[in-house]
Description:
Strand content: under 5%
Number of strands: 0
Largest sheet: none
Amino acid sequence: MASIKENRGFRNLWLSRWVKMQAMALLMLVPVASQAGSCLAPIRPFVLSDSQAARDFADFIRRDFEVYITDVQDYFRCLEQERARAFEEAREVSLDYGRFLELVGD
Length: 106
């Protein structure tokens, strides 16, 4: 009976470590995604249609709108940075293409 409990304890410890390793891997990938130029639009706030429920949850809804406004401003900045990055890349590619055409004699 002790061996079953030990196996369960070992399995739980192993699963716990596995989950922690997966979480760390995901956290390491987040900066990569932001550097890759992926701008994610924020989720639009939800407004309840029932006026009583809206009053009951007014603080939460108000907070959702405030968070959305902050996030959409960050989103616009990200889009502008991505546009500038893509424009610079396109300029460099055009120069590379010009050098290529000179190289091949076109």
